[in-house]
Specification:
single chain; alpha+beta; 60s Ribosomal Protein L30, Chain: A; Phosphoribosyl-aminoimidazole Synthetase, Chain A, domain 2; seven-stranded mixed sheet; four-stranded mixed sheet; 11 helices; 15 strands; globular; ligase; EC 6.3.3.1; purine biosynthesis; PurM_cligase; PurM-like_N
Amino acid sequence: MAASPTNPYSEAGVDTAAGDLAVELMKSSVRATHGPEVLGGVGGFAGLFDASALRDFRRPLLATSTDGVGTKVAIAQAIDKHDTIGQDLVGMVVDDIVVVGAKPLFMTDYIACGKVFPQRIADIVRGIAEACAATGTALVGGETAEHPGLLGPRDYDVAGAATGVVEADAILGADRVQDGDVVLGVASSGLHSNGYSLVRHIVTNAGIGYGDNAADFGMTWGETLLEPTRLYTLPLLRLIEKLGPSTGSGTGAVHALSHVTGGGIAANLARVLPQGSWAEVDRSTWSPSPVFRVLSDIAGSTLESAEGTWNLGIGFLAVISAEAKDAAIAALAAEGMPAWQVGTVGFGARPDGEFEQGAKGVDGGAVRLVGAYADGAK
């Protein structure tokens, strides 16, 4: 009997059969995000999305965003828990689209790994799909690639890209912001997906293992640090609609939104304020989540020293007309999103002192944090 032919690709470390099995395991969760706009099912070379509905727009603009989860994946790998990283990815990508007032349409994902473990890949994609469904986004395609020799067998990284749509005259941003506008902070669920290089540095230097019990949180350190990113897309879109008009000649009550990711509160707020404006964010209006305090205490540092790295309890900022403040807070509370006033936008001469002036290449407004953080939970 002749010997079975060898598979050179398999000998090089790539298991195509495992990749096929991973696709089979994830199919049902991906299909659950598909409405009638998605054509062709799962597994095609390209995802197809029927854009006929865009003909009802006066001037539809497509909004797009791409991102990853960063070194938070190292913690997922350390405790072999992979079902929440997908939500982190969707939060980082899709929640950037809503900043301009856009409704997400579809998303694709990319997973690079040293070796395909089908159930693990399926867990990651299931998390992506569930979060896509929670944000009204169709997951229309993706790719899983084995990179043996470049990544360790149990290493992986994730990335994604999403596309949304907004009416041209309904775009939110700095040009809508007015003197006297109120800045609302919307609570985060914790660290979200930024600053994990600092987190891992603190934990490692303290000799803490991710499987160790975190007495302050009633679970292990790994489970605590994997708390998934809060998803803001649909509550914020409903807020825009409620406080409209969100299209046409009216400016609406929601003028600008900011997703608090890398760079922290001041830098991200400055990006969506116009040149010549300024805002002071009052720390005393909230108490950062316990995870921030515990990590800072372990490091022997202050919360203020991490303001350019962590969100410190605010995942989104909304710049709205002062008259709409109470209605906005109530509407977000009804969505399970605690929100409160953290500051006011001013134009012209600003107080003495150092402000952050724009960020990420945007020469926007000026922002600084003032006061001391509240002691009690917000």
